[in-house]
Amino acid sequence: DPMEDDFPDVRKNPPAESSGIGFSPAEGVFALEPKPAEFAGLPARLDYLHLNAQRRISEPVRATDAYFANDPDAPIDVPETQIRLGLYATVRRGEDFELELKPDVEIDVELPNLEHRLRIFVESAQNNALPQDSLGDNDESGFDIGARKFVEGLNLSFDAGVRATWPPEAFGRVTWRGDWRLGNWNFEPEQRFFYETDDKFGFRSSIFSARWLGAGMPYVLIPDASIKFTTDAEDYEWAASFKAMRVQRLLDERRRGKAIGWDDTAVSQGLRFAVYGTDGTLDTYRFAFGFRGPLYKKWIYWELDPGLEWEEEDDYDTTFVLRL
Predict the structure, then answer these.
(1) CB count, 10 Å around CB of 68?
(2) What per-residue confidence (pLDDT) applies to 287?
(3) Peptide bond before 223: cis, by omega within 30 degrees of 0?
(4) Amino acid 76: pLDDT
(5) Is 242 helix (H, G, I), strand (E, B) or coil?
(6) How far apart are CA 65 and CA 75, in angstroms?
(7) Can you give 74-136 as a three-state secondary structure string?
(8) CA within 20 to 30 Å of 58's CA: 91, 215, 278, 295, which one?
(9) Strand, coil or helix: 6
(10) Would strands 200-213 and 185-196 be described as parallel, antiparallel, or unpaired?
């Protein structure tokens, strides 16, 4: 009876409905909070999603990792999965008007029982770009998905994974990062070697430094520099920048006293000057103010960076740039 018209209609059971968080019961260490019959408003709905969406990811990860524990009765505690999502817009006004939107995703999943220190990560495909680049400078698309292994005694990390583009691209990275103190200055050199099926072999060398000032360290000066080479491009890219910031609050206050970036701050104001080049050519000058603050509680933040830019390909004509 393909037309279902020869017999009396049989009422079919409606499909199961879901809140979008998941079907499985709210059990485990990272148990879901019960969904209220009605939300008091948009803030209450945002709080519910903020708590339960993260727990929905964290609990299956914890249960999977516990399966690999050496002692099933005493597994290593798995921290909650860290998720950072961003959406950035860049407006340029020079001879032409440009508007660009780019998402930024970072998910860090720790699996301490599996190989005792293995992490799964999902990041926007920009990890080998110069650290001084803004998100809008990155031409890569897709996401990097892989596993990360730390060797804490040597300050080394090993990454391997694929870039979720078409066709998929494999990558591998080895990164060393130091943490040195010289007087009132903190220095963090970084050396990375990488392979990508697109850029082939390459390396990136960086030096980050910071000088915190004042009682309670509310102010910081941050000079840094980087250089990058890939066998595919066969030339060197380099960049250097200087930032002066007032930092009322960091996302992780344990970073106070160390080298930081705009993304590490929760409430801050400052200015930044940067230069970019290729081999012996100076390609771009950039000057910008930066403002960052909370939009909703301590997990949604706004950022506003107005500035000016001078590029060699435009004969160093002044371009107004607004990033938010």
Answers:
(1) 16
(2) 94
(3) no
(4) 67
(5) strand
(6) 9
(7) CCCCCCCCEEEEEEEEEEEECCCEEEEEEEEEEEEEEECCCCCCEEEEEEECCCCCCCCCCHH
(8) 295
(9) coil
(10) antiparallel
**12-21: burial string, b at 16+ Cβ within 10 Å, e else:** eeeeeeeeeb
Highest mean pLDDT among 21-30, 88-97, 301-310: 301-310
Q: Which among 104, 105, 16, 17 has a CA at the least distance from the CA of 57?
A: 105
* Own/partner pairs, 278-285, CB within 8 angstroms, 24+ separation: 278/235, 278/236, 278/237, 278/238, 279/235, 279/236, 281/312, 282/312, 283/311, 283/312, 283/313, 284/309, 284/310, 284/311, 284/312, 285/309, 285/310, 285/316
Q: Give dist(CA 10, CA 212) in Å, integer.
A: 74
Average pLDDT over every residue of 301-315? 89
Detail the DSSP E strand segments found in 178-256: 180-182, 185-196, 200-213, 219-230, 236-250
Task: For residue 65, report the phi and psi dihedrals to the nearest 5 degrees.
Answer: -65, -40
Checking if the pLDDT of 146 tops 60, the result is yes
> Considering Cα of 133, then 138, then 142, then 148, what sign does the dihedral take?
negative
Nearest alpha-carbon partner for 317 in 100, 35, 149, 92? 92
Q: Is 257 helix (H, G, I), strand (E, B) or coil?
A: coil
Q: Which residues contact 43 (CB under 8 A, 6 or more apart)?
A: 296
Instruction: Of 147, 127, 278, 135, give the one whose Cα is nearest residue 196.
Output: 127
Q: How far apart are CA 43 and CA 255, in angstroms?
A: 29
